[in-house]
Amino acid sequence: MDIQNLIDSIAHDVAPYLAQGRPADYIPALAQESPQQFAMAVATLDGGLYATGLADKRFSIQSISKAFMLAHTLQRHGEALWQRVGKEPSGNPFNSLVQLEYEHGIPRNPFINAGALVVTDIAISEFGDSSSALRSLLREESGEPAIDFDYVIAASEAEHGHRNAALGHFMKSCNNINGGVDQLLAHYFRACSIRMNVRELARAGLFLANHGASPVSGQQRLSRSQAKQINAIMLTCGTYDAAGEFAYRVGLPCKSGVGGGILAILPGKMSIAVWSPGLDARGNSLAGLEALDRFTTRSGESVF
Ligand code: DON
């Protein structure tokens, strides 16, 4: 497969979709991004790195951080993590409050905001400064020491993050948050604010494609079985109430973020990152989904 040729042609084909998406506006600092931007990168386990579009432009990874935070925390804390958060798709928007009360403060899965807050609470108990620990992991796995938080975006989200605060306080009332809610939110917003470009993100995903062993840092980040588990949850829950459509159209474990990025994993072969800040109604990159659909459809590669 000529990956470079394929992604260059995909970048051309998705251009008409760029105008159809809208950047997230509930975090004002994200609303300023023009939707007329696109980038895609593919990192392969045999050392290839292919990119097209605005591949050097860093963007806020937002909820894509949840996949790495889960990997880091599961590796350290182990199976006990699943006593506090489920593994089932929610079928609800990522920031929904309704299910949580019916289900006694145990979030459906680690990728909706409530679940990621629980994982972050566990990460704080394991690592102390959980957002800095995540930043270190992403620096090591991308091979790029300049990766950092975006404090303007983190502050913008903190100022408008009332739904996340509500989720945090509700779960605290159910005894599913151990630490302070303010500290928890600060770490969560900082992790979401991390900026990376598609090249860096695709490289950082390689350990998920390589059964937990990183070809970038040389570290065994996860056991083979844990890498399977994270990929399974990405497939079923990584794009929220659009997970069924992503599985149908893309056929890969994916994790999206409201910054417009999507990370997709083809186990045993490659990691793919796309970015375009215009979102669809369910909070996933509109052109990003179009690009991933074309990538797996034209290449014939997917987990199925
Ligand atoms: O908590 C939030 O709402 C954001 N920091 C992250 C949400 C997000 O990226 C959802 N992804 N599609």
| Number of helical regions | 14
Stated plainly, the CATH topology is called Beta-lactamase
Low-pLDDT parts are: none
Overall shape: it is globular
Question: Can you lay out the helices and strands and say which pair or pack?
Answer:
Elements: H1 3-14, H2 28-31, E1 39-44, E2 49-53, E3 59-60, H3 64-77, H4 98-102, H5 113-127, H6 130-142, H7 151-160, H8 162-173, H9 181-193, E4 195-196, H10 198-204, H11 206-209, H12 224-237, H13 243-249, E5 254-256, E6 261-266, E7 270-275, H14 286-299
Antiparallel strand pairs: 1-2, 1-7, 3-4, 5-6, 6-7
Helix pairs in contact: 1-14, 3-5, 3-6, 3-12, 5-8, 5-9, 6-9, 6-10, 7-9, 8-9
Summary tags:
14 helices, alpha+beta, binds 6-diazenyl-5-OXO-L-norleucine, five-stranded antiparallel sheet, 304 residues, two-stranded antiparallel sheet
Explain what this protein looks like in three dimensions.
The protein has 304 residues and is α+β, with helices and mostly antiparallel strands. The chain has one domain: Beta-lactamase (3-Layer(aba) Sandwich), CATH 3.40.710.10. The protein has 14 helices and seven strands. The mean pLDDT is 97. Homotetramer.
Short synopsis of the structure:
The protein has 304 residues and is an alpha+beta fold.
